[in-house]
Structures are given as structure tokens and as C-alpha cells.
Amino acid sequence: MKAKILKQTKLLAAKMRRYIIEEVYSAKSGHPGGSLSCADFIATLYDNHMNVDSKKPKDINRDRFVLSKGHCAPALYAALALKGFFPIEDLKTFRGINSYLQGHPNMNSVPGVDMSTGSLGQGISTAVGMALVGKREEKNYKVYTVLGDGEIEEGQVWEAAMCAAHYQLDNLCAFLDYNGLQIDGNITDVMNPEKVADKFKAFNWNVIECNGNDIVKLNNAISKANQYKGRPTIIIGKTTKGKGVSFMEGKYQWHGSVPNQEQYEQACQELNAVIAELEG
Amino acid sequence: MSITDPREAFAKALEEIGDNNDKVLAVSCDSASGSGYSPFISKYPDRYVEVGISEQTGVDISVGLAVNGFIPVISAIAPFLSMRAYEQVRNDVGYSNTNVKLIGSSSGLSHSPAGSSHQANEDMALMRTVPNMVVINPGDCYEIAMSLKKAVEYEGPVYIRMPRHPLEDILPIEERDFEIGKAEEICDGKSGITVIASGTVSNEAKRAVEELNKEGISCGMINVHTVQPLDQEMILKHASKTKLMFTVEEHSIIGGLGDAVAATITQLEGAPRLVKLGILPGAVNTGPYRELLAAYGLTHEKIKESIKKEM
């Protein structure tokens, strides 16, 4: 990955984080922790891999993206706004009355959203359906989906995993945002999903493990996934919940909490500093 | 001779629809042979998607197919499709208004000997509350074929309740005109009694009405294949000249045809008294199909008895 491109994607991720905080603070509700942890993957994907055009959001040959962990909508909305799918100022309407930016993504109202999600486990199944169409129509598009590590406690995820492998959907790439935390605490305490990589291998998936907050590694992982033939790929990305905001990092309490004014200002200060450095 | 086997009627209709529309895909939850998919699959093997015993994923895969221009027809045994996958149907088919056709096979008491786990007595109640959902409850093989044809032509979510046991035609085919949301007037009555029936027990109700008419009790009758949207105009037309109204359905008396009719006639000043004939909530029973229908008061003899008792 060239230094200039890396810097550009890092900047996108940093700006996304800044807007994630803005959205949640404006709405006085939402999910900052997981949105921040998966921001690097979404930034890497939209900056370097997603074949989409904000002027033709329904283009039949576009790549598809399904945010299976729909509660991390602030991250997706920030990416789509920064990529020109809708005005950035609309992010402030997040979760507000009459806003098209609901707490969880709605494909019928948000340009660039390919599937409505929110109930965990359902998004990946719809992504399997989309990938099946890509195969039967011999289209070159890819289908990407982001799963939460808590989300894989839902049985439907494993139905979908079985089906994707059965149909050899190598046009499907899932990212597991493995930040290790869910609403009530450590995932290993709430419902230990380990050994996750072995489970997906046993379901006949191609498994790539990497640092899910490292853009270079994510970029390589996505490229490898897209070259892999015969099986779907899951990128298990070890991430930090609340990544980029010092007091949120690694704390499950920030799964669905809203910063107060002081915390909001501190978060903005930290993220603005990163943006200024990258722009400098 | 017209077809009486529901699965044969469904199979023939699906094959014909498939001949004319290459966007139609059959999605099976290990339900291909049980649903009547086999002729379609034999003819169009590449338009068949098997998802295994996983109704929840099956519904969402269908959504993924639908948003990319296909018309998935997904069939599974009615309780599993409408109840296990209810949230997927509600979110991704209903709220998202996707073009998915849900076929609840062996609905109602079809699997009567299998017990309550396999009976679907609440599916219409559940599906009626799903936004944008059309709910069709066919009562003979003509209605089965037409409901599937019209559902595929219609852009949006449809749930069709598929019967299993042999059915006679409710009316001669030449007298019929199937339109989603339109009920059929079978006869007009003079005794201030109207019977509104839907689905598999329409024929039972019709026979009861015919026998009562012979005894000098002239009942009106309406056949309702589309429970949602309900043909309110037809219901109100009859309600306005009726003192006593009956609904008849192979479904719980909560949330199905009976409640849909009740909600409609309350608009009317001096609305008729309504008696809902159907399955009492919590009823758990097993046995041969007709014996169970009789136990629940849904054979023509029992319907006639109920009407006379309430007069």
C-alpha cells in the first residue's frame, strides 16, 4: 500500500471517527464503541476496494455492503457521507424525528445502504442471497458484510455460514469486528465464542486473522479475500472497542453510551488532533 | 375433471409461472418435495435454491435475491415459516417491502396427527400484523393457482397459506374472477344472517348454508380468499342488512378472518352480532384431519349446528 494512499485512508478513518462522535452526541443515543472499532475496516474498504459510485448508488454491477451489526450505523453513515452519497450536515439528524438516518440502516431511505439491518444475525443471510445472485448472474461484484463478535452468538449467523460455504460463495467477504466486548462485558464471560477461527474453518470458510485497526493489514486481507477461490472468506480483525477516543478504548460501557459535553469535547480534541496531523 | 390435490395445483401453477417469468426462483427449506416444487425444479434446476432446514436464513436469503431483481418463492411448513422466521419476515420482507413470496405449506390443521408443533393456527394473525403484507388463504385449487399467479404479478410481500388435503371447487371456474383483495358473494340471504368463510372451510360453510337454505333459513354467504387487505366494501354491504354474522376459518379465532371482519363492521352503526367460528386459543388436539375439523366445529354439520344455535 503506497504511503500516500495509506495516509488518505487513515484520514478517512479519522474523519469517520470524528463524525461518529458527532452523530451520537447530536442524537444523545447510539453506539460509539463498536462504530469506532470497525471504522478502519469500513474506511479501508470504501477507500480502496468498494466499486461504488455515489451518483449511481443502485448500479447493478456495484459491490454490495451489508452492515450485519447494524447498530454501528454511525460508522457507515459517516463513510457514505464522506464519500458523497448524501450531505455531511445530515449526519447531525441521526436518530432524530423524520430523519432518514435511523438508528439502524434503512436501505429504502439511505443512498448507498444496500440492506436494512438492525436485528443481529440477519444481515449476513441477506448478504448470502446477494452473493448467490452474483454467482448465478456471473457478475463480478463482491459482497462485503461486517459482523460483530457478540453477533455471532446468534444461531442464524451459523446457518448463513453453512449456506455460504455450501454454495462456494468466494464473492462473499465477511469482516468480524473482534473487539472482545459486548453490552454486558467481555464476550468470553457473557458467551465464550472461542475458538472462532476454528469454527469458521470447520464451516469451510477461508479464514484470515489480522489486526482489525491496522489499515495496511486490512488492505492486504481484503485483497487476499478477493483473490481466494472456492470458499467465502472471513477476516477476523482484532480490534479495540472505542478505538481512537482514549477514555472509550477497551471499555464495554461505551457500547451504547453517550458522551457528556466534557467527554464530547475531549473526544473531539483528540480526533481533531489526529486529523490535523494527517492533513498537515 | 378439475384438480383437487393442493400440491398438484401448486406444482402446476408454479411450473406455468416459471415458463413465463425467468425471474421466479424456488427457495426450499428442505421442503421441495413436500411443497410441490418438484416439477419446477426438474424443468428449471438452475432456478432452485436449497437452503436446508433453516427458515430464518431462508427468508433473508430470499430478501437478498429479491433486492437484486428476482422473485423468490420460498416455501416451508407454515408454522416454521411464519413463526420461527417471523422477525426476519417482519423486518426484511415487511418493513423493507421486498418482493418475497412466502408459501406457508400444510397450513392450519393440515398436519393434524402431528400435533400442535406442526399445526399453524396463528399464522394469519401474525402475518396480518406485518407491514405491507398481503395475506391470502386459498380454499380450493383454483384459488391456489390464482393466488400464486397474482402474487408473482404483484410487486411486494405476499404470504399464501397453502392447504394439504383434497379440496373441491368452491364455485365453478367459469363463474370466477380472482383479484387480490376482492371477496366473492356466494349468495344473498333473506333471514338477516351472513356467513363469511375463508380457505379450506369455505366449502364446509357453503354446504351448511345450502342445507339451511333448503330448510327455509336463507343465509347470505361471502367467500374471502384475501384476508389482508380485506374486501371491506363487500363485508360492509352485507353487514348493513345483517343481524347475525358468522366467520368461519381453519385458524385461531384470534387475529384471523374473524377479527378482521370484527374490526371492519364496528365502523357500522348498529353493526350485526358476530360469532367467530374457528379454533379456540390454546386448543391442543390431534387426530385425522376431518375428525379434528369436527372436534373444532368446522365441518358443515357443526357449522350448521352453530348457526342454528345462535339464531
Features:
heterodimer, A: 280 residues, alpha/beta, Rossmann fold, five-stranded parallel beta sheet, 7 strands, B: 311 residues, 2 domains, seven-stranded mixed beta sheet, 12 strands, Transketolase (chain B), PDH/Transketolase (chain B), thiamine pyrophosphate (chain B)
Describe the structure.
Chain A is of the alpha/beta class. Chain A contains ten helices and seven strands. Chain A has a single domain (3-279), classed as Thiamin diphosphate (ThDP)-binding fold, Pyr/PP domains (Rossmann fold), CATH 3.40.50. In chain A, strands 1-2-3-7-6 form a five-stranded parallel sheet, sandwiched between helices. In chain A, strands 4-5 form a two-stranded antiparallel sheet. Chain B is 39% helix and 19% strand. In chain B, the strands form two sheets. A seven-stranded mixed sheet of chain B has the order 2-1-3-4-6-5-10, sandwiched between helices. In chain B, strands 7-9-8-11-12 form a five-stranded mixed sheet, sandwiched between helices. The longest helix of chain B is centred in the N-terminal third of the chain and has 15 residues, at 6-20. At the A-B interface, helix 5 and helix 6 of A face helix 4 and helix 6 of B. Chain B: Residues 4-170 form the Transketolase-like pyrimidine-binding domain. Chain B: InterPro entries: PDH/Transketolase, THDP-binding, Transketo_C/PFOR_II, Transketolase-like_Pyr-bd, Transketolase_C. Chain B: This is Transketolase.
List the helices and strands and how they pair.
The complex is a heterodimer of chains A (280) and B (311).
Chain A: H1 3-27, H2 32-37, H3 39-48, E1 64-66, H4 73-82, H5 122-136, E2 143-148, H6 155-166, E3 172-178, E4 181-182, E5 185-186, H7 187-191, H8 196-202, E6 206-211, H9 215-227, E7 233-238, H10 261-279
Parallel strand pairs in A: 1-2, 2-3, 3-7, 6-7
Antiparallel strand pairs in A: 4-5
Helix pairs in contact in A: 1-3, 1-4, 1-10, 3-9, 5-6
Chain B: H1 6-20, E1 24-28, H2 32-35, H3 38-43, E2 48-50, H4 55-66, E3 71-77, H5 78-84, H6 86-95, E4 101-105, H7 123-128, E5 134-136, H8 141-153, E6 158-161, E7 184-187, E8 193-197, H9 202-214, E9 219-223, E10 226-228, H10 232-239, E11 244-252, H11 257-265, E12 273-279, H12 289-295, H13 300-310
Parallel strand pairs in B: 1-2, 1-3, 3-4, 4-6, 5-6, 8-9, 8-11, 11-12
Antiparallel strand pairs in B: 5-10, 7-9
Helix pairs in contact in B: 1-8, 4-6, 9-13
GO molecular function (chain A): metal ion binding; transferase activity
Protein name (chain A): Transketolase
Pfam families (chain A): Transketolase_N
